[in-house]
Amino acid sequence: MRRLFMIGLATLFFSGCMMDVTAPVEQASPDHQVEAAVLQTESMLEVPAYYGDYRPNPRISDDRRITRPGEVVRDSRGGLEVLKASGEQKQVSAGPAELTVRETKLLRYVPATGRFNGGQTFEFVKLFVEVRNTGGEPIQFNPVSVIGTDTGEALRWEDDLYREELGGMIAPGEVKAGNIGFILRESDVDELTISADDIEFKIQF
User: Fold this and answer.
1) Phi/psi-derived region of residue 152, left when phi > 0, alpha when psi is between -120 and 50, beta in every other case
2) DSSP 3-state assignment of 167?
3) Using an 8 Å Cβ cutoff, are 106 and 123 in contact?
4) How far is it, in rounded angstroms, from Cα 67 to Cα 84?
5) pLDDT > 70: what percent of the chain?
6) How many whole angstroms separate alpha carbon 149 and alpha carbon 168?
7) Contact 135, 95 (CB under 8 A)
């Protein structure tokens, strides 16, 4: 009987350890622990449908399940916190090129030591975009040429953090989708101005 009791305690102990290890999402501040439980239930369990079969960048933690300011996710690559987020979706066209911005976030990233950027914390803006060729001929299109911020920064395509090759030739009917992200020098950003070939539009946090 005593042996069975000890086995039962051991099972409970190791089950508790497994639950603790597999909880990937937390709230940044202890003041929001109750709110965190609600957020996990409402928004952190499912990846938004528009991501489809998209595979996260291997250099940066997966942020697909965190969508609201204060939400945090941690994995072996590091930890991400949402500072600001816009649920506003934008769809604009330039000839046969149709650009859709699905989400826009301002994030703080703490890379695991030695994994990225020397383990130094940094902040960046990230957009999940789709580019569709609605015409009958191949087109050359860059989803973002420049992102301007209301703090005066100009973030250019060649400085993109994700390098997902969304630009270039796009066949008729083809859709390219993925992340665009730029490291910021100034973090207090409230508005982005996106320029993409002949398109220009604004997104506010």
Assistant:
1) left
2) coil
3) yes
4) 9
5) 77
6) 25
7) yes
pLDDT tens for each residue of 172-188 = 999 999 999 999 988 78
List the single range of 13-17, 38-42, 76-80 with lowest mean pLDDT. 13-17
* Residue linked to tokens 């946090």: 205
Q: How far is CA 154 from CA 135, 149, 186, in A?
A: 31, 7, 11
- Nearest Cα to Cα of residue 126 among 58, 183, 193, 66: 183
Across the chain, where does the E strand assignment appear?
25-27, 71-75, 78-86, 90-94, 97-111, 122-133, 139-141, 146-149, 154-156, 168-170, 175-183, 191-196, 199-204
Domains annotated for the chain, with CATH where assigned, are 47-204 (2.60.40.4170)
Q: What six digits make up the tokens of 59?
A: 């250099």
What sections of the chain are H helices per DSSP? 2-22, 33-43
Q: Quickly count: other Cβ atoms within 10 Å of residue 26's Cβ.
A: 15
Say which residue the tokens 């569709």 belong to: 132
